[in-house]
Amino acid sequence: MTENRSPDRLPAPDGEPVVRMTGVVRVHGEGTGAVHALRGVSLDVAAGELVAVMGPSGSGKSTLLNIAGGLDRPTEGSVALEGRELRDLAPKQLAELRRRSAGYVFQDLNLVPSLTVAENVALPRELDGVRTAKARREALAVLEEVGLADLGDRFPDDLSGGQRQRAAIARALVGERRLLLADEPTGALDTRAGDEIIQVLRQRADAGAAVLLVTHEPRYAAWADRVVFLKDGQIVDSAAAGMETAR
Amino acid sequence: MSGLRASLRISRRNARRSKRRSALILVMIGLPVALAAFVLTAVLGPGPVPDRQRYPFGQADALVIGAHEWANLSQDAWAEEVSWEPGRKHTPFTGAEITTVLAPGSRVIPVAQGNVRYLTPEGYGIGQIRQVDLRDPMSRGTFRLTDGRLPAAPGEAVVSAAMLRPDMAPGVTLFAGEARRPLRVVGVALFDLTGTPPDLTVFPGSLPDTAFGPMNPLLMSRGWLVDSPRPVTWADVRRLNARGLAVVSRAVLDGAGPDEPSPRGPSLPQSAPWVAIMLLEVVLLAGPAFAMGRLRRSREFALVAVQGGSPAHLRTIALADGLLFGVAASVVGAALGVGAAWLARPALERRAGYLLPALTVPWAVVATTAALGVVAGLLAALAPAVAASRADPVAVLSGRRERGRERAGRPLLGIVLVVAGTAATIVSGGHELGWIATSALVTQLGLVALTPALVAAVARLAARLPLPLRFAARDAVRNRGRTAPAVAAVMTAVVALTAVGVTWQSRLAQKPAYAQDYPKAPAGALWIAGPDLTPGLWDRVRSAVREELPGGVPLVEVRTLTSRSGVPMYASVPDTAPNVSRVEWSDASQSGGLLVGTDDLLRYVLRRDDPRAVAALHEGKAVVLNPAVIRDGQLRIDLTPVAGPGDSVPLTLPAAGVRANGEGWARAVVAPEVAAKNGYATVTTMLVVDPADFRTPRATAERITAKVERITGKATVRLEVPEAPDDTIILIVLGIAAAVLVLGMTFVATMLAAAEARPDLETMSAVGAAPRVKRAVVAGQALVIALLASVTGVLAGLAPGIAAARQGVSHPVAFLRPDGVTTIVPVGAAPAFAIPWALVGLLVVVLPLLAALGGAVFTRSRLPLPRRRVT
Ligand SMILES: Nc1ncnc2c1ncn2[C@@H]1O[C@H](COP(=O)(O)OP(=O)(O)OP(=O)(O)O)[C@@H](O)[C@H]1O
Ligand SMILES: [Mg+2]
């Protein structure tokens, strides 16, 4: 299972979505102070699909992403990642899932500052027990795919914001992971760097990954196969984006 | 464990990134390891002194001694048991004779050694003198010259560094033995400790053979060092035995193997409680620093968790810190400690005044110490590691503060341990120190478990205090996981310091605390004792004393017996007091308590005018203070010369028994005429100002002391007045330790607290709090930690301190009074307790305030801009 295959050659989507959320409810706190971050959200993301999540601040976008990757647990409803129901998994198994199935990219400060870029990317593999040398080879391969072939031995502090985000994407994908969860990955970047990042995500989706992207920028929604609008923890609209025209 | 390599890599990189924190942790773990390694190597490192050998080999192959009359002797390998007949007349072999019976090509040089009395400009001394050519290659390794040069001609000597005094220094001429042979000191050397190390080593020919006493193979009094072209085998030894030579051969001894190793170092049960206390202290000290590291890197931990790091992975990464620092600090610390012990050897040797046996590093013990350092690192990193594995990555990444999931410690367990430990401490009072330390350790662990609850209690008390203090106390409670170890660390140090202080002070209060503090003469008496002074020196001392005393104050002259040639005689006067072989303190009169003098001495000794005693003295009788030892009106004593040849001779004197008022200050007194009539001379050994005649003021006594010291270093001057115990040294030693430990630890803990409270402080400054509020808050944090820790610590330290103070004198201690009488300190003198109030004040008041002040001064009052947070 640690076979070195690039995301370009992922198995073709077989109809089963990579992640399937059904009736997900997430309540923070209890009693009068309870906050309903999600109120019954159902969403499928298939392989090769880039889904954009939009909505006002506090609408539950980050919560949705956290639940999709097993970082957070739903209060109600079910989440299945690559066909596995997450509800019954122990924290240890959830961690394993994040190493093998789902990868996260946040707005910034994604990388461990004391590790080089290649080491950062190799980290999930090494945590998974892959030997250092092999993990490094895999990391360099993925870095090449995101266009950072020469920067593997730099430290994150020596990279530009866009390069850092690309490294984070590489790390989220290394080791055949099929679900990429990106929470405002362009939020800290200027327009040009932001555009580049979206293009990388689009490429990964085209190569077979399932990408769930939270963004405030309607511009980037145009790159998505589908746009989901969240409001007060509910999906208010879901539209196939006019991708062809945007391009 | 998968990911250990990655974890170690992260630890290593982070250690390099935050250099100050890394240095701090390295010092906190490495320093104790280095100190322990240094002490262990310095104490256990030097091998045992070969105690069965009478003379160091140096580069020689063998040591022989023999006489024609000893033919067919038999011996063991060390020549400790030699069958020979002492006492008869012996004809020693000459060097030429010995060379002919040794392997062809052998070379011999003469050696002689013995106890010799010598005269220095400040009086007599008795000590081992060796006569051997130190320039000969065979002597190499037995000494190291530190000053001057080696003797090159008869009459020249080097003095042992241990004996170096102004009256025995290069340039001084000494006179040795009965014949008063002049010896000019030309150098100073450190001597090997094998056998009896010499006071002086003189060039061959300086002293006659007779000065070293009779030929004796057991003492190696007059022999030869052999340089042989081949090893001297046991067969050779037997062959030489037949000729009448006793032989100690290096080859034979090497073949015999070493003596069974005597256990080196303290046993495990003895050292275990101390090791545990050290470990606890190091763990508590380093713990907060690791916690600080985890806090700083909480985002990093969260990122790893997001990327699929399981709780076990996060624990590994946090523990890798402990492993990394533990190993690095221990290895470096142990190496430094061993290296320092090695480098300090010349200094230690100079301090000891002797060459120390070859240093073998006690690797097992040092390795154990280093292993304990690693354990300390891992234990210190354990709590932060568990916290790291429990943290919620989503909360950290979204900038939400984690809910205080801090437990209130384990108060019940704490109370049980404290009660059990205190009970054990009370029971162990007066027993072996190890038990007290173990009980105190149990109490301490209980207190550590109770600390979170104590911190909470303090916060309740702080409710009515001004804002900064209230904030600091609240903050301390909210972050109990961080405050508790800091408080516990300071507390543990304070407990130890208080316990030591109480024991020390109590020991002082238990007056007289030490054998040398016991009265050695009647209260108020001023005495000057100098059994080794010449009559000329005594004249100078006498006139110096007279100059300081008012005219007409009588000086009681105390004399003792000597041989006609002036060798002091030890008189064993029978006594019914119990025999104690060990004398721990001596102002060294070898008289044995038989004093020679006139009426004023008698009055001084008996503490009254007794006409019957005076009459007896004038009749030529010995006045004996213990009448029980008089048989048929006679006192029988044995007189032994304290140096030189001659055996003890009995002397029987008519005697009168007179009991003294009080204990009496001699065993017996005789008149000078009696000594002369029996063929003995006398010398002055002591001058006394009888308090019945004159009470010498302290200032006068001090002036007399100073004057006498200028005349000779071989006299003791003492005014018998009770001295108030001097406790300044307690304050200085413990005070410095307290200041370093309490302030240092509080500082670390406060920095940690301040770093963690930064968001709150940022908020405060954002709503308009003045910069000094931040200083006040940091000061408050320091105060809370230091005050809580020192108050609890002082209270907890009292019990073990008192318990240890109850340990009275457990074995009889004997000391020798200047009148030559041995006195025994009673066993189990009533214990006394005293509390070092100055130290307590320092710990409870001064240091917490200083800590607060330091916290305020060293805080950067300008707040950095709030850091951008990420949703
Ligand atoms: N741990 C928590 N405790 C209490 N409330 C929470 C917690 N986490 C999220 N919330 C609440 O849940 C709601 C949804 O939060 P979420 O972070 O998902 O919003 P978002 O859509 O990502 O907003 P933004 O665009 O500002 O990032 C918010 O009202 C938030 O206050
Ligand atoms: Mg969000």
Automatic annotation (TrEMBL), chain B:
Residues 278-393, 733-857 form the ABC3 transporter permease C-terminal domain. It is found in: Cell membrane. It comes from the Bacteria. The keyword Chaperone does not apply. Its main location: membrane. GO terms for molecular function: transmembrane transporter activity. The keyword Acetylation does not apply. It is a multi-pass membrane protein. Pfam families: FtsX (PF02687). Keywords: Cell membrane, Membrane, Transmembrane, Transmembrane helix. GO terms for cellular component: plasma membrane. The chain crosses the membrane at residues 21-44, 272-291, 323-343, 363-387, 408-427, 433-463, 484-504, 729-755, 776-799, 835-859. InterPro entries: ABC3_permease_C, Macrolide_Exporter_MacB. Belongs to the ABC-4 integral membrane protein family. This is FtsX-like permease family protein. It comes from Microbispora catharanthi.
